[in-house]
């Protein structure tokens, strides 16, 4: 399809020539955008940085014409305009802006003279736009096509900001830059006050994340050093505990009854069950293992010993430990029924199973102590 | 073991009748091949007439469950007799397969 002439924008000769150059280079712009976005996404994935969004665009011709109309005289040539290709990474946390920035510095050629950290430009008493803008080039080590050397010379922009900074920038743009009326200063001041509040919120989110990560590390260290009684039972601690395969020994012992294979299954659903049974710390589970593993083994022998079953789930050990705990606590048939309701969902069968277990286990040694 | 499969798009109503053990596990595996295909299957296994399952049967159900999980589907076993359910309970398979 034949394009309209760039003269339709009514710009002066200098700006019209820049627009023509834009059209000639449009495919290269698209290629640079593709390469830069691909690289950024790879970097984030390899470094495990979760972000809200990675986005990019090549400035539309109409938008560029508008910019040239307003300030075309500022630019000697098209390459002076560094935001024709723009990418943006929106992070969850302020710390991640710096992490992504460091990755970008190591991967792209940065034009430091034209890059700007708006976060550091505010005075002590001013708040507003906060974002890190890098002007970059694709290095030859990343991509080189001898037929298109311009891919390595044309500059593009990377904007790095947090989700809250992004939100503020968008709202501010929507409210403050409508060209038809001048916005009263009180409204602009209110917008900047909000920027201060969001800056505080950003810092607080980062502080909370750091504190949570510190707590996780501390707990993992306690688990690794075997100080189980000091570790409260929760998702993180239970997961760390399970990584130590605490029930493997008992599972292997039970499997050996019939030379059975063990099918590996998640034990995470047992977290809720341990809490239901009143366990508060990992130490409580360890204590159960110490005091009741032999009894759980007896129970398993009673259940599968006389059968030809040669496959068990890795949940058997913990299941039998819980059953023994309930039986020893004296909670009886009702206690078992409630436990099975929690474990497998409510059904009339659970009471039948509980009654059967009460009868069968009455012969076991631990029930007669 | 007799296997009857009624399919409506991705929904499979399966009726299992008889015993499942080493003597008929291979045939059972062939019979359930239609359940091993397609995205997001919703499988209901009616076990009210299933008389017995051996360890080999447990392996078959486990294989089917894994296949269903990998295709983003769901599987539920219903109507089990207490004798059959006991096998699933004492092996811990009740924790892996949804049984109602």
What keywords describe this structure?
heterodimer; A: 369 residues; alpha/beta; Beta Polymerase, domain 2; 2 domains; 6-stranded mixed beta sheet; two-stranded parallel sheet; 8 strands; elongated; B: 100 residues; Transcription Regulator spoIIAA; 4-stranded mixed beta sheet; 3 helices; 4 strands; 32% helix; 34% strand; globular
Give a written overview of the molecule.
The complex is a heterodimer of chains A (369) and B (100). In chain A, 55% of the residues lie in helices and 10% in strands. Chain A is an alpha/beta fold. Chain A has 2 domains: 6-179, Beta Polymerase, domain 2; 245-368, no CATH class. In chain A, α9 packs across α10 (316-329), α10 runs antiparallel to α11 and α11 (332-344) crosses α12 (348-361). Chain A is elongated, with a radius of gyration of 33 Å. Chain B is α/β, with parallel strands linked by helices. Helices cover 32% and strands 34% of the residues of chain B. In chain B, α2 (55-70) links the parallel β3 (42-53) and β4 (74-78). Chain B is globular, with a radius of gyration of 12 Å. The model of chain B has no long low-confidence stretch (mean pLDDT 94). At the A-B interface, α9, β8 and α12 of A face α2 and α3 of B.
């Amino acid at each position: 399809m034949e394009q309209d002439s760039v003269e339709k924008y009514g710009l002066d000769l200098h700006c019209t020539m820049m627009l023509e150059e834009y059209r000639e280079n449009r495919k290269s712009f698209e290629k640079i955008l593709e390469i830069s976005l691909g690289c950024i996404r790879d970097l984030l994935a390899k470094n495990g940085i979760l972000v809200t969004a990675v986005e990019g665009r090549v400035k539309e011709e109409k938008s560029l014409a508008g910019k040239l109309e307003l300030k075309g005289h500022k630019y000697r040539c098209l390459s002076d305009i560094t935001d024709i290709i723009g990418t943006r990474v929106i992070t969850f946390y302020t710390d991640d802006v710096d992490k992504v920035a460091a990755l970008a510095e190591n991967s792209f050629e940065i034009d430091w003279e034209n890059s700007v950290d708006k976060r550091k430009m505010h005075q002590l008493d001013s708040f507003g736009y906060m974002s890190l803008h890098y002007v970059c080039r694709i290095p030859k080590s990343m991509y080189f096509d001898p037929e298109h050397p311009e891919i390595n010379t044309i500059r593009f922009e990377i904007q790095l900001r947090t989700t809250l900074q992004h939100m503020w920038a968008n709202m501010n743009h929507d409210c403050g830059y409508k060209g038809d009326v001048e916005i009263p200063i009180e409204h602009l001041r209110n917008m900047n006050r909000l920027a201060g509040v969001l800056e505080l919120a950003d810092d607080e989110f980062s502080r909370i994340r750091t504190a949570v990560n510190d707590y996780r590390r501390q707990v993992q260290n306690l688990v690794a050093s075997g100080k189980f009684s000091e570790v409260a039972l929760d998702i993180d601690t239970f997961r760390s505990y399970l990584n130590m395969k605490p029930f493997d020994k008992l599972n292997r012992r039970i499997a050996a009854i019939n030379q059975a294979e063990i099918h590996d299954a998640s034990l995470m659903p047992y977290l809720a069950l341990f809490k239901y049974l009143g366990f508060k710390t990992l130490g409580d589970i360890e204590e159960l293992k110490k005091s009741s593993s032999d009894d759980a083994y007896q129970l398993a022998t009673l259940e599968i010993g006389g059968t030809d079953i040669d496959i068990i789930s890795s949940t058997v050990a913990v299941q039998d430990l819980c059953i023994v705990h309930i039986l020893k606590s004296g909670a009886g048939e009702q206690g078992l029924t409630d436990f099975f309701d929690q474990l497998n969902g409510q059904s009339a069968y659970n009471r039948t199973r509980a009654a059967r277990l009460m009868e069968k286990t009455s012969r076991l040694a631990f029930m007669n102590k | 073991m007799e296997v009857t499969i009624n399919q409506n798009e991705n929904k499979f109503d399966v009726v299992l009748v008889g015993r499942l053990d080493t003597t008929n596990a291979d045939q059972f595996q062939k019979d359930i091949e239609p359940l091993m295909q397609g995205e997001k299957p919703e499988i209901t296994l009616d076990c009210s007439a299933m008389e017995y399952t051996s360890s080999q049967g447990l392996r078959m159900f486990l294989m089917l469950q894994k296949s269903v999980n990998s295709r983003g589907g769901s599987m539920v076993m219903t109507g089990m007799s207490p004798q059959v359910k006991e096998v699933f309970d004492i092996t811990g398979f009740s924790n892996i397969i949804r049984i109602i």
